[in-house]
């Protein structure tokens, strides 16, 4: 009725098209339906007229607010005895909200009419008590019509190519942006919007975030960061092929000629529109990137607590939005990549991925609904895909990461020395081991939701994970057990995951191939003596130091050390690590583990808060198979 298609399981082509223009998105989600279908247009107009009659009262906004509020109350007021049922109710309500907001945005035109219809951002949050992510979903189209004073044709987030006046510094002032809808509403300044955004989060959150970055993140869309050129070209080629087919028709009857003429006009119109929108899209992405490049230096530079930047950014921005929809999941990964490629000061890319995987991923898997964990899996897939691309070749790493602030060793100091390629491979190994452990912990849990969510997560990331043969075999064993479960839905999911793992199996590599010579892999018992002797001769021990400035790791030559001394030193390090863990559990909450000094964890398997939280919740967590190798460099986590 609303001519709005909502599909959670989008194909790769459809998901790619969601980053495109309105025409491209429509053709990707209508499943062959004509854009100008008379029946759809008629039903859409009737629905709009029912919700927005010329005479008051209008039902559109009250219905919008009720759906948004009900989404928040589903979990609290649910009478269903099973978590699975509550999860399904939440997902249905959330999908309805997404459809309804898209319907309002497309049917209430122009954008100024939509802006006059809905409440202000402040009212959405404080009067109607909507969550920030829902409030920004509703208000995002309004943010895009804030205009720069003196340049009414330039709307946020586009960049201003030329200075407005003689004072070039005033160009960066957010107060220059204004939303003027005419009477009776008074103009809204961009500074007012930032002030409202600042009231959405606790005061301590702004020690590690800025309102400018927060508003920018929630205001942009996938359309602003990425041009799916391949998808545009594919659709344009389809239109050209359709024109060629029409020209080759030989029917010369008057009715056939008339029909061909109308079809040609329709196809030519779509073709011209796609080519024009591709050009506008490329201009938009270039302009937005120019604006972001101009503003990036002030986003995090004034934050007093730089150690918590990534944790706050994940908690306040990434997780609420990457679990909102599939396009939003891709957007979050793109936004992080944009922060990295722009060289944003104090945003450490390596630490971002480390906090994501080692501190927050397992709790998120355990508390997501079915659709949310699928979106989270898509975000993790995009993140890992980029990380594996950087790891694939040293020349790629040096070109895209070697000189970026996001790979600074001391991430309090963006201009400090960079993480080397070998160090990145070691920390990459740790991420792979950590993902394996947390997935196995969920798959072996007695909780239904944890098992199901782990299977869904594995399905979403199967294109890039697992990478090593031992990891894949370990996961296959757990999935095979679930295939014999009495619960049919788990059996179906496990069968799909098993097929995905089997398809990925030819691409698995050995641990040695993954390490590319940079890893000190755990030797087998039969080769222990030879390994110790070799290490004594070659002498390359890794010592991880942590200071207030946050050092990653140093390669320390140790060629003169005997095997006995090396073994003694290893035992001392293990005892120190165990003592540190004991202090950690006694002095801090199980849900928050902190490493002082802000160091990037390198090449180790660190026990973190997520593991403790799952154990406390009764999950049956176990370690990976003994055959899975570990990096010998253990990192001390200070309480």
UniProtKB/TrEMBL annotation:
Single Gene Ontology BP annotation: mRNA export from nucleus
Residue segments, region Disordered: 540-639
Coiled coil: 257-291
Sequence ranges of Basic and acidic residues compositional bias: 566-588, 622-633
Database matches in InterPro entries: Tho2, THO_THOC2_C
Protein name: THO complex subunitTHOC2 C-terminal domain-containing protein
Naturally occurring in which organism (per UniProt): Punica granatum (Pomegranate)
GO molecular function, one term: mRNA binding
Annotated Polar residues bias: 540-549, 556-565, 601-621
Sequence ranges assigned to domain THO complex subunitTHOC2 C-terminal in this UniProt record: 206-501
Pfam families: Tho2
Assigned keywords, A-Z: Coiled coil
UniProt GO cellular component terms: THO complex part of transcription export complex
């Amino acid at each position: 009725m609303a001519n709005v298609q909502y599909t959670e399981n989008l194909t790769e082509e459809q998901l790619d098209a969601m980053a495109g223009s309105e025409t491209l998105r429509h053709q990707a989600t209508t499943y062959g339906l004509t854009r100008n279908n008379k029946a759809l247009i008629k039903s859409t107009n009737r629905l709009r007229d029912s919700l927005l009659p010329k005479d008051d009262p209008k039902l559109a906004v009250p219905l919008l607010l009720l759906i948004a509020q009900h989404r928040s109350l589903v979990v609290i007021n649910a009478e269903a005895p099973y978590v699975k049922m509550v999860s399904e109710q939440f997902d249905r309500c959330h999908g309805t909200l997404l459809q309804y907001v898209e319907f309002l945005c497309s049917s209430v035109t122009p954008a100024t009419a939509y802006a006059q219809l809905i409440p202000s951002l402040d009212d959405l949050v404080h009067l109607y008590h909507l969550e920030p992510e829902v409030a920004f979903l509703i208000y995002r189209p309004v943010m895009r019509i804030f205009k720069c004073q003196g340049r009414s044709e330039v709307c946020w987030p586009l960049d201003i190519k030329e200075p407005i006046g003689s004072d070039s510094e005033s160009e960066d002032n957010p107060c220059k942006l204004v939303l003027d809808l005419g009477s009776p509403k008074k103009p809204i300044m961009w500074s007012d919007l930032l002030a409202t955004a600042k009231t959405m989060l606790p005061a301590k959150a702004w020690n590690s975030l800025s309102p400018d970055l927060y508003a920018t993140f929630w205001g942009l869309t996938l359309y602003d960061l990425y041009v799916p050129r391949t998808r545009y070209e594919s659709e344009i080629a389809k239109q050209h092929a359709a024109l060629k087919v029409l020209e080759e028709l030989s029917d010369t009857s008057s009715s056939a000629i008339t029909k061909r003429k109308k079809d040609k006009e329709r196809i030519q119109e779509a073709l011209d529109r796609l080519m024009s929108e591709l050009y506008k899209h490329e201009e938009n992405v270039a302009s937005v990137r120019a604006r972001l490049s101009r503003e990036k230096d002030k986003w995090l530079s004034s934050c007093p607590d730089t150690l918590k930047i990534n944790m706050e950014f994940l908690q306040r921005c990434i997780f609420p939005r990457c679990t909102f929809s599939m396009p939003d999941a891709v957007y979050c990964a793109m936004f992080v990549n944009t922060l990295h490629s722009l060289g944003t000061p104090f945003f450490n890319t390596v630490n971002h991925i480390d906090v994501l995987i080692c501190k927050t991923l397992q709790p998120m898997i355990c508390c997501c609904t079915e659709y949310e964990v699928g979106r989270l899996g898509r975000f993790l897939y995009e993140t890992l895909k980029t990380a594996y691309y950087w790891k694939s070749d040293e020349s790629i790493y040096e070109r895209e990461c070697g000189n970026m602030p996001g790979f600074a060793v001391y991430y309090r100091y963006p201009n400090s020395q960079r993480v080397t390629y070998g160090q990145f491979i070691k920390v990459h190994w740790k991420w792979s081991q950590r993902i394996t452990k947390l997935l196995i912990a969920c798959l072996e849990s007695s909780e239904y939701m944890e098992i199901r969510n782990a299977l869904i997560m594995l399905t979403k990331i199967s294109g890039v994970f697992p990478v090593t043969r031992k990891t894949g075999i370990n996961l296959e064993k757990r999935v095979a057990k679930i295939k014999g479960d009495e619960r049919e839905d788990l059996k179906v999911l496990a069968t799909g995951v098993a097929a995905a793992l089997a398809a990925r199996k030819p691409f698995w590599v050995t641990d040695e191939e993954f390490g590319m010579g940079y890893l000190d892999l755990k030797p087998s018992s039969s080769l222990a003596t030879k390994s110790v002797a070799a290490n004594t001769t070659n002498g390359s021990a890794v010592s991880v130091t942590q200071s207030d400035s946050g050092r990653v790791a140093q390669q320390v030559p140790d060629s003169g050390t005997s095997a006995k001394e090396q073994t003694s030193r290893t035992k001392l390090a293990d005892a120190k690590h165990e003592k540190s863990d004991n202090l950690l559990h006694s002095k801090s909450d199980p849900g928050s583990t902190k490493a002082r000094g802000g160091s990037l964890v390198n090449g180790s398997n660190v026990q973190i808060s997520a593991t403790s939280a799952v154990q406390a919740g009764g999950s049956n967590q176990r370690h990976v198979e003994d055959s899975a190798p570990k990096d010998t460099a253990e990192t001390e986590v200070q309480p």
